[in-house]
Specification:
This protein has 138 residues and is an alpha/beta fold. The protein has six helices and six strands, in the order ββααββαββααα. It has a four-stranded mixed sheet with strand order 1-3-6-5. Strands 2-4 form a two-stranded parallel ribbon. The longest helix is centred in the last third of the chain and has 19 residues.
Length: 138
């Protein structure tokens, strides 16, 4: 097993329009640090996750396409999946945290077979983080 480096990037479109939310940034940094040094895959050591949070009209114009890529030869995987823009915009900060956590888990699940990621262990670690930080508890 190789050590994991998880990069959770700022959401496409949303960040450009509204800026970085410090609480979401800090949570993603904590999850990155939680995963750092753990072995979730025998072939992938870097995973990049970039949420796409954009309104339908922007998405329908062809911008910000979803993407799942696993480069086993290079030990790299990248995932960009869309999130519901209206739901995210209307959510308070606690709900936004939950939506981002769900998105991180969904993204890892989307590549776990091809990337040979032990999704059960990853999900368990993320849920332990959520419990420790009272995310999903409110």
């Amino acid at each position: 097993m190789v050590k994991m480096d998880l990069n959770i990037n700022s959401p496409m479109y949303y960040t450009r329009e509204f800026g970085v939310m410090d609480e979401i940034y800090d949570m993603c940094k904590d999850i990155r640090n939680m995963a750092k040094g753990k072995s979730y895959s025998s072939v992938i050591n870097i995973v990049g996750i970039t949420p796409i949070i954009a309104p339908y009209d922007v998405l329908s114009s062809g911008l910000f396409k979803e993407m799942k890529k696993c480069e086993l030869k290079y030990g790299f995987a990248s995932v960009s999946l869309q999130m519901d823009y209206e739901e995210f915009i209307g959510a308070d900060i606690e709900e936004k945290k939950k939506l981002i956590i769900i998105h991180i888990l969904t993204s890892m699940k989307a590549i776990h077979k091809k990337a040979k990621i032990n999704y059960i262990d990853f999900e368990s670690d993320v849920m332990q983080y959520c419990k420790a930080h009272e995310i999903f508890m409110k």
